[in-house]
Amino acid sequence: MSKVCVFLADGMEEIEALTVVDICRRAEIDLTTVSVTESKMVTGSHKIPVEADALLSEIDFDKVDMIVLPGGMPGTLNLEACEPLMAQVDAFDRQGKYLSAICAAPSIFGHRGMLAGRKACSYPGFESQLEGATVTENPVEVADHFITSRGMGTAIDFSLAIVARMKGQERADALAKAIVYKQ
Questions:
Q1: Under 8 Å between Cβ of 21 and 7
Q2: Is residue 120 part of a domain?
Q3: I want to staple 23 with a disulfide (CB 3.0 to 4.6 A). Which of 67, 119, 142, 159 is the partner?
Q4: pLDDT score at 182
Q5: What is the pTM of this model?
Q6: Mean pLDDT of the residues in the chain
């Protein structure tokens, strides 16, 4: 069974994080929410408290197939400032393991030089931070082991792309139909 971890930092965009959680759990993907703080309680950018399943120090990354980074401010900055998480992002890239980010968070991959030569998208105004990428305005871009997306309004598209990657397009299409979502 595939394992996905969604990383939560204070200031995250709640809808971007929790839509991934909801859609992936509906698809029966093993998903763990992970706080990058010293507490399981994380406060989103709109002051909504979210309790994570685990702390970063509790995660065995050898058993994780995909890292998901929600956007939001200052959530994206707080994720990027988390050195242990960034070490894992770098390791996943070297290993060709799945990395996904939405809104401002794809800028993290850009800052690390990971998007060079790949299509990518982000929240408007962050395009220049997708260093070396072919930037699009599509709701989602899937390029090699990366999935990027633009923001809260594309959270379902992003989540369904994750389901397609982990469980296949047929499963993603069936789930879209079940939630009455038109792509």
A1: no
A2: no
A3: 159
A4: 82
A5: 0.97
A6: 97
